[in-house]
Amino acid sequence: MTKKAESTLVDIFWRRAEQTPERTAIMFKQDGSYQNMNWKTHAEKTAQFQRALMACGVEPQHKIGIMSQNRPEWTWADLAILSCGAVTVPIYPTLNSEEVCFQIDHSDLTGIFVENEKQLAKLLEGCTFPHKTLKFVAMFDGDCNDKPKGLEIHNPFDFPNLGKGKIDDEALQKRRESVDENELASIVYTSGTTGVPKGAMLLHRNIYAVLKDLCDLCKFNENDIAFSFLPFSHVYERVGGQFLSVFQGIPLAYAESMETVPVNLAEVRPTVLNAVPRFYEKAYQRVQSQIRHLPAAQQTFTRWAIGIGMRATRQKLKGKVAPDILDRIYKTELRIADKLVFSKIRERFGGRLRMMTSGAAPLANEVHIFFEAIGMQIIEGYGLTETCAPLACNTLEDNKFHTVGKALPSCEVKLGKDNELLVRGANVFAGYYKNDEATKEAFDSDGFFKTGDIAEIDDQGYIRITDRKKDIIITSGGKHVAPQLIENLFKGDPLISHVVVYGDRRKFITALISLNQEGVKSFCDKNGINFTSVEEAIDEEKIKSEIEKTVQAKNSKLASFERIKHYCLLKEEFSVENNELTPTMKVKRKVVIEKHKDLLDNLYEKDDLQAQKT
Predict the structure, then answer these.
(1) What pTM does this model have?
(2) Backbone dihedral region for residue 165 (phi beyond 0: left; psi -120 to 50: alpha; all else: beta)
(3) Which residues, in sequence order, are CB contacts of 252 under 8 Å at separation 6+?
(4) Mean pLDDT on 496-506
């Protein structure tokens, strides 16, 4: 077998460490402040992990899992696994014991890295030992004294030293050089919004193709710092954050946790950020909530500034007035707004963000325009686990709202039956692990991968995703309704967290609405309502009236058959812990609807009773 120079993730990492040993590779919080680690030390840590893995008997193409929140050890483990010629299997740390053990069993893991005793307990409780394939566990934190038969469990102190005196540098290098671009690099299980997760097989060359395209399209510079808080368990952040920072040679800063992201942004002051729409929506809601608590005069001025910015942005996007003329019209107002309002909002994100990406779900237009107006550019992209995340993206220089941009240079896209988006290219996965039937169903006769998303492609090549093919609602009257079109109208509303539309084979459309606790509390404070919980607040007439006004306002933008006729306010927000959201904050529609089926059925029964009365 022959391979191209630097065409594997292993080549990329070790060449980067050799070329820029003293430059900062990663940043992480330790002892109360962020510490910098250069590429030389970063490589030494990775080599230490590689040596230990080889001492544990890891051979090429063995499957090794990682179940942890983002941290430097996650990256060292990942790069070490790949340097052994083995296959990384990320497992979401939010999964329950049954889900974890399914992935361990299905992927034939030889070993697994776990974050702590809590994560270790999931596999000890759910798996049967001696296990058919699992031989060892390496812990990032904690220890275990009660070890099951046939399983080695290494704590963070003994694992890094396992290979000392056993595996020399020559053996490490020989193994790295043996890795081929056509070999399996990772098995990533789909997030499972519906059905049983499938293991997507990603080759080294698949991921390499995406990295090369992104670096050609997105102009990074030596002063950039990437900030990482989305889970590496998801291909979006692992490829677009961890691996892209290696490919480009820019520092990657790890958030301490999801809860500390606002504080960490101010500390790190990054220039590049990957996020999901929910992150931007909550940030937008938070800003709106804070504005409502300002003194009257300051509140009026702040709303004026944001209003000017968003009005100028909308006119710019419509393209009816030349940008230079718009700049002259709004120059003085925007300069004042930027100095006194916009700059202060940007500072809350560190003050230096020049490129923010959004993926995994559609971004609400109102939210997108807000960030554009205050000088924080968001570029939307689109991809799936099976395409190593982005198969299309906008760029800073060519950013078309309402679209996910153009296909990457290495991708070929077209529309199939029912306008389903089809893709073929170097980034497309090799199939589903141990599932030939699903693999066959995933491709058409010409080798195009069927994304399952309904799309439009304009004459310039920009792609617009309209809905999931499986989510399309067909009412009993035969009308086709795209639920995401309706649900996206509510994104960014201060009171509403999520809307899930329902109505397949029913007479009309209904919805489940979960409320945003922070927005509800702010509304209660402003309207003299004693706030104790969302559960109690949903019975307040003023809140119900406000929600009703919002629903009717959104309905006015829809065709009559698309309008929400009845809805139910839920007592709590959807969460990953309750299995209602994926780790990337996408609603598990099937799970949510099944969970609240009685409430939805009652909405139709209520209408039937009303009809009988009239």
Answers:
(1) 0.84
(2) left
(3) 25, 26, 27, 75, 226, 227, 228, 241, 242, 245
(4) 90
